[in-house]
Design brief:
Shape: globular
Number of strands: 0
Radius of gyration: 20 Å
Number of helices: 8
Distance between the termini: 55 Å
Strand content: under 5%
Amino acid sequence: MLNFMKHIDGVAQRITDPLVPFLLLFTRLWVAWVFFKSGMVKYSSWDSTLYLFEFEYQVPLLPWQLAAYMGTAAELILPVFLILGLFTRPMALILFMFNAIAVMSYPLLWEKGFFDHQLWGMMMLVNVFWGAGLFSVDKLISSVPKKHSALQ
C-alpha cells in the first residue's frame, strides 16, 4: 500500500511540476487585474473615492485623505510589479497586507466580499512563498551570470 501511494504521488508530481510556472503566473495576473481595476475605478471617480474614505472606510492610524491617496496608489502601482514579476515576493506581501487592511477597514466586505479577499490573499501568499516563477523579470534577473571583478 505504501509503495502504491508513493507511486501515485510520484506520477502526480511529474504531471504537476511543469504546470507550476503557469500557476504562479496565473495567480500574479489574477490578483494584479483585480487590484488594478479597483484602483482605476477609484481614480476615475475620485470624488466618490474621497467620500468613501471619509465616511465609509475606517482605515486605522491614517488620516482619510492620506489613506485615499495611498490606497489608490497601491492599487495602481503594486499590480504592475506583479504583472512583470519584478520584486514579486515583497510586492505580493505588501499587497497581501493592503488586502488585509482593506477587509478590516470596511466592515461591509465581511458580508459580501470576504470570500474574494480570502482567495486573493491566498493567491498573494502563493507568490510570497514560491516567488514569481519562470515567467518573470525576477527569473530573468536571477539567471543573468554574475560578472567577476578583477579585485576578487
